[in-house]
Hints:
Helix 2 crosses helix 3 (41-53). Helix content is 62%, strand content 0%. The protein is built from 13 helices and no strands. By secondary structure, the chain is mostly helical.
Amino acid sequence: MRDLRAFYRALLRRYGPQKWWPAEGPFEVMVGAILTQNTAWTNVEKAIATLKSNGLLDPRRLDEMDAGTLALAIRPAGYFNVKAMRLKSFVRWFLDRFAGDVERMKRTAPGPLREELLAVKGVGPETADSILLYALGAPTFVVDQYTYRLATRHGLVAEDAGYDDLKEVFETRLRGDARLYNEFHALIVAVGKECCRPVARCESCPLRRFLARRGF
């Protein structure tokens, strides 16, 4: 069984603390988690900056907005018409279920809350887990393309593994530590961008020695 904490320590030595999620508050994290679907974070930052500058980063303001107007405001995030509808679906649920109160949302158990989030149109597993972990501090591991590449290349899961398979590997071996989940996922993104790319750059990777054990 691979020692994931050894992976974590090697990544932390290379990259240092990542201080994720970059946001001024939990609701901004939630909005960012929806806007970042299928786009680069730099584009999300531009969209969020526009919302902020117009005083729109508020669930009630977003709920009241016309979808077309909202789409123009978040245009830098790409797929803006689709994301505007997803964002409005989310804030309507957030207002109906919790009156827009993050603290009320935090008092709901993570398991049932995750199921509720997944029932919101446009919220998939990665978005739901990002909201739970980064906005609410719940102990759930976020899986993305970087996690998949690292896990399959290091033999943690088979190449046909699904989201829940990957999530189970990390949560089983790193039980219930939200701060560790937070930092580890951010570090995986860091190494994924620098080294564990579609065409891997293993020579400079801080996890190269773990590949050597597998005969690479």
